[in-house]
Amino acid sequence: MLKSRGRGLSLLLALCVFAGVFPVSDSFAKTVIYPTVASGTEVEDNTQSVIDFSNVKDGYVMVKFKEKTNKKVKAQVQGPAGDTYTYTLRSGQFEVLPLTEGNGSYQVTVFLNTSGNSYATVNSASFKVNMSDAFAPYLRPNQYVNYNKSTKVVKKAASLTKKSKTDLAKVKKIYKYVIKYFKYDKKLAKTVKSGYLPNLNKVYKKKKGICFDYAAVMTAMLRSQGVPTKLVIGYTGNAYHAWINVYSKKKGWVSGAIYFNGKKWKLLDPTFASTNKSSKKIMKYIGNGKNYKAKYNY
Question: Among residues 84, 63, 52, 70, which one has the least CA distance to residue 113?
């Protein structure tokens, strides 16, 4: 039986969440794509699936379900903090799953749906992680934020930030662009199903999306500019929601997506800000960190 405390994605989609991320050093605009590969040197492999943990020092694990199936396939990542992160796997392709709880012992398990809400374990791997960089999981693409050097939002980020001299300047440029040009897709929000993953090129073309799309777009843009970015899922009041945390060499971690009001950086939620046209009331709510309680980082 699959037991999950990591129901973040399903709730995220149902309640339309938003999230984001971080930077390692202040620098001029330069696209940086950190690789994610299934090297095959450390694996748990069987006829149904493969768990490749060759590159855990870089903050990720690769998982693939080999067989073609119409049944649901899930992967769970349990880290040293004890939380369970649950992902939906697509048959025949490797998925990049981030290791966001830092150094320590992890277990990755693959499950296949048997009937109803029952799942059978098909593969499992346990390993210890000692990352080469604490920011590693937040500088790379993963299943939720899937991009490469050809992705349109990545190219747009490079264009927007070409004159930006600091990471926080990049954050401001990208934030202002997203809330100005992207609109909330109410139709998609009503029809979206569990397992939905953003296609960044399609979102960029439509300039429309649900909260998950907003988050993935901004996260990809910032990470591709070397800005460590966390896509954070948690609660705002009683509603499941998401936001972004960013890091800069000068400021350290700034919890919550941020907005510069001319005097100081403030907590910001791009979904709320975009859909409410940055009204004084919504900006006051966004600016209160007590309204946000983080649960999962991606």
Answer: 70
